[in-house]
Amino acid sequence: MSATADTLLRKLSKKTSRSSLAAMSVGDVVLYVIVAFFLMALVVPSLFAPYDPLELSSARLESPNWAHWFGTDEAGRDVFSRTVYALRPSLGASLMVVGFSAFVGSTLGVIAGYRGGFLDAVLMRVIDVFLAFPYLILAIALSVSLGAGIRTSIIVLSILWWPSYARQFRGQVLALKTQPFVDSARVSLVPTRTIVFKHFWPHLAPHIAARASMAVGNVILALAALSFLGLGAQPPIPELGSMIAQGRNYMLIAWWYSFFPGLVIVVIVLTSLAVSDRMQQSGS
Amino acid sequence: MTTTHHNSQDRADRALDSAFWHVDRLSVVYQSEDGTRLEAVSDLSFELKSGQVLAIVGESGSGKSTVVSAITGLLAENGLISGGSIVTSEGDLATLSEQEMCDLRGALFGYLPQQPMAAMNPTMTVGRQIAESAMIHTGIRYKEGRAKAIDLMRSLGLRDPELLVDQFPHQLSGGMLQRVLLAAALINDPDTLIADEPTSAVDASSKWQIVELIGDLARERGLSVLLVTHDISVVERAADEIAVMYGGRLVEHGPTKTVIDSPQHPYTSGLLGSRVSETTPHQSLLNEIPGIPIDLPTLALTPGCPFAARCDRAVEDCHDVFPQTKRSHGRMVACHNPLELRHA
Amino acid sequence: MLDASNVTKRFWSKGSRKRGSSHLALDDVSIEVREGFSLGIIGESGSGKTTLARVLLGLTEPDDGRVTFEGTALGDLGPAQMRAYRSAIQPVFQDPRSSINPRRTVQDALLEPLVHLTASMTSQELSQRASELCEQVSLHSSVLKQMPAELSGGMLQRIAIARALGPWPRILICDEPVSALDLSVKAGILNLLLELRAEYNLGLLYISHDALLVRHLCDNVVVIESGKITGRYPAEQMYSEHMAINGPFYQNAASDNKETRS
How far apart are CA A57 and CA A34, in angstroms? Predict the structure, then answer.
């Protein structure tokens, strides 16, 4: 019963904080600003980048200064601008992969979970195969056979990412399926489609959102890994992973080359974890 | 780690009204993150006597579960005892540290929790879990503990305890598990047993057996029992005294038979009257108490008697100030306008 | 007009039908539920009473025997007949906190059967029906906009009953409708069921382990143990014969014959 008191207390404190702005902590505000910044930079990079990312100049390997905040690379290109433009193949691609896998994965998982039977069994075996396989090897193999490039990376990672969603949501649907409110709906001839979208969705959505936002960070790392190995975005297109790879050659004389793209990846991953955390809380 | 060992025979020989525990003006509050305090239990006083079963009866929001948590030292993190004392032979439990409470749990008193299945570790045998308490408090080895467990299980009515002792919780029925937990609670021969809704998760046939068992244990071993329940028929069967809680307060207290025959508090009377008994006319409408049991947030905003809003005997004072306790003939009631005692 | 005839249902544990052991939940059970009459089913957990409810509601198919609605077996009902059956026979489950989806509004939950079982009603008509239903169960229509978590157990069970009343049913199948509720709230729900029955001439199938409640509420009573029906009595007769002999609690009689499982 103290659990009941606890829930009541929580409800009471929620009701008394009328202003939602006041309820947001400093951390929340900072988080939203960062997310907004990244999204804008993704959509309109030209707004943020002072230079053309492909523009060559004679200012080679300059350390960070007022003209070039992140310094320049071996071709005299502004690292900051390249980093901003690199968000598209990195973050943008990551969002596409996550979007696709979340959609396909949860749909298949929910259908298999609800229908059960043969369909479910087949799906589970397929998922087992995918999850058992070391992803990087598969990614490399597919990239090599399909040809390197961003598009391939996106395809490859999408194929690899959906199974874990499917498994999670199948599990949740299995638990939801036995609830009396589902019996009640079935008795009233509510079609399956409606049960899934109207009844299950509000339970599943926060978990899908939480998982997807966390995945953004993970996928970016995977994309960067592929690029690092030379399988992702091809030069001269800037991509965070390939920039880190290139910067390796100049590590001792131009630390900023690898450092800043790496820092941006870290920030994106941490941000995605923080967002995911918030989504998880809203679900419980 | 020393604990006082009372011989059950000694206890049974003691005068019946020697009180083991005095709970005096106990108050418990829950605190939320933003500082709001909700008082779940207010000014509660009662005694536990050797060989007697005291039943605390209440619905959700009455505070009865909070009382159990406070006494056993198992309050949630945001709960704390804000006033009063729980005086036992080992001191005032309200003032003890977690470590000191650990030493007493299972030794000074046994605790029988609500849901037998949830209270047991599914990966340990039943025997181990019973013996665990003895091993921790008295330092004996498992071999000895297991033997003690078998004896205890037999005396509690479990058949073939030598076989049961090595089985796992999921292999036993709800009723059997409840007896196992009872064994675990009693293995160190404590003075007191705190039973938290022992019959709600158990099916009908086992329910009465457990209830009778608890009653027998109290009488034969001189155990003092605090039985928390929402089921009045259980109280009728097993309890010597009944204490009724509403909105965190004790509203009525007295010997079971007299309170049930002639309740003084309108809430008690309403509860008793709304039951189906053997004499209720077939398919007649039952006597309802209007409204719903008061919850903590509303309680915090109610200055007077928490039951006033639902009471058909409410007078003006009821909404302003909580009534003083009136005592007579070994009974207690907290009401501005109590019912007349029905004399046999 | 809802009959179960010689219904048998087996549950298999752990996968394969050949290897796993089976549990006979219902063994040759036959009962009749009629409009205007209330039938009580007394049984403990594991007796098969819930399985019986599920079979009558068409949620589970029997392995043997059949359930008929107005003479037609459930499996043979055409689409229009199916809708008639579903509208006529509505459930009230034990725990309203899980029988009403906690993530949807009270109004959505309340209108669900009506929306899916009747020919299209305008949103105006639906809204009006929702208010009517609230009134029938003595609730203020302001509850419609709230979420289930904001209502007490008793109020939520009234919503569950109102929901069942939506499609103008003729029989309510109630599986332990007051077990999860507080003492002082139980009486209100039982009275509500008695009043609704009288006003709308509803048939009632009331399933519970609480013999006193069942015999108080119902006209006739059936006792079920381990999947078999072991007694059928008119309610009052059951009380005087069974209870007076065996003591105030039916369960005592049953338990004297049972041994604790070993």
Answer: 31
Alpha-carbon gap: A13 to the closest alpha carbon of chain B (Å): 7
* C145-173 average pLDDT score: 92
Q: What is the pLDDT of residue C173?
A: 95
Chain B residues near residue C212 by CB distance under 8 angstroms: 276-278
C-alpha C83: how far from chain center: 19
Q: Which residues of A touch B64 (CB under 8 A)?
A: 1
Peptide bond into A236 cis (omega under 30): yes
Instruction: Please tell me what DSSP assigns to residue A246.
Output: H
Mean pLDDT by 10 residues, chain B (344 residues): 45 51 92 83 91 91 90 88 88 88 87 86 91 89 90 89 90 86 91 88 77 89 90 89 93 94 92 85 87 83 88 88 88 90 66
Instruction: Convert the pLDDT of each residue in A86-124 to its tens digit.
Output: 888 888 888 899 999 988 888 888 888 888 888 888 988
Contacts for A197-200: CB closer than 8 Å, 24+ residues apart: A198/C104, A198/C108, A199/C101, A199/C103, A199/C104, A200/A110, A200/A173, A200/A176
CA gap C159, B63 in Å, rounded: 27
Closest chain B C-alpha to A5 CA, distance in angstroms = 7
**Chain B residue whose CA is closest to A17:** B34
pLDDT digits (tens, 9 = 90+) for C53-66: 999 999 988 888 88
pLDDT at B181 (0 to 100): 92
Chain C environment of B60 (Cβ under 8 Å): 153, 182
Q: Which residue of A has its CA nearest to B58?
A: A1
CA distance B275 to C187: 7
Nearest CA to B240 among B47, B22, B14, B65?
Answer: B47
- Give per-residue pLDDT as tens, A55-71: 888 878 888 888 888 88
Q: Hey, are the CB atoms on B276 and C153 less than 8 Å from each other?
A: no
Best of A178, A181, A199 to disrupt the C interface (most C CBs within 10 Å) is A181
At residue C255, the pLDDT reads 40
Residue A115, classified by CB atoms within 10 Å of its CB into exposed (0-12), middle (13-18) or buried (19+), is middle
Q: Whose CA is closest to B213, among B164, B242, B241, B179?
A: B179
pLDDT (0 to 100) of residue C199: 92
User: Are B227 and B195 contacting, i.e. CB atoms less than 8 angstroms apart?
Assistant: yes
| Residue numbers in A near B115 (CB within 8 A) | none
Which of A181, A189, A194 comes nearest C100 by C-beta? A181
* End-to-end Cα distance, chain C: 43
Query: Which pLDDT value is given to residue B243?
Result: 95
Read off the tokens for C86: 């579903």
Is B36's CB within 8 Å of A5's CB? no
Looking at the partner chain, which of B33, B65, B295 has a beta carbon nearest the beta carbon of A2? B65
Alpha carbon of B70 to those of B35, B78, B96, B263: distances in Å? 20, 12, 12, 28
Residue B120 DSSP one-character state: S
Instruction: Tokens 């990376």: give the residue.
Output: A153
Q: In chain A, what residues touch B30 (CB-CB under 8 Å)? A: 2, 5-6, 9
Pick from A183, A188, A194: CB nearest C117: A188
**What is the overall mean pLDDT for chain A?**
82
| Smallest CA–CA distance from A15 into chain C, residue | C150
Out of C57, C94, C103, name the one closest to residue A187 (CB): C57
Inter-chain contact B203–C252, Cβ cutoff 8 Å? no
CA–CA dist A199, A194 (Å, integer): 7
Residue A39 main-chain phi, psi, to 5 deg:
-65, -40
Q: Which of C155, C183, C246 is best to mutate for the B interface (most B CBs within 10 A)?
A: C183
pLDDT at A23: 56
